[in-house]
Fold this sequence. Notes:
It is a single chain. It is built from 7 helices and no strands. 50% of the residues lie in helices and 0% in strands. It has a domain of 93 residues. The protein is globular and about 40 Å long. It starts with 14 loop residues before the first helix and ends in a 7-residue tail after the last helix. It is mainly α. Helix 3 packs across helix 6 and helix 4 packs across helix 7.
Amino acid sequence: MIKDPFLDEEYVPTVREIIGCFDIYDREETLGCELEKYNINDSGDRKALAKKYIAEQSNYLTYRHKFLLVSTLEAALKDEYYDFQALLEHDCESTNCFPGYWDEMNDPRAFFYDIYSVLIDEWKDELLKASFEDQSTW
Length: 138
């Protein structure tokens, strides 16, 4: 069983976890202002965000964690009914918060597909290594 990088429990990745780095709660003046420079409806900008904030800042994840995380995203992308929009909606009961205009994104599925394509490319060696292992032994 793979342990969570921060908790002493089983690692169960979620699609929401992938975009957690974009949570601007209590960072509106720093990260929030930085994210406003990107057009979330532009594929090139989305890929730049994925590379800078997800791929390059995930050094706390092992190659196995990355494999499981990408597999979770891949499964969601294959599910034509998966509600990516719901992940971006602001919940008044939560301290989690994305930039205000993100919940009005033209195509949330395309956003997550761009993230997926970046991670597949940036983590290719680690994902390949994990794919050769027997995941049932993790």
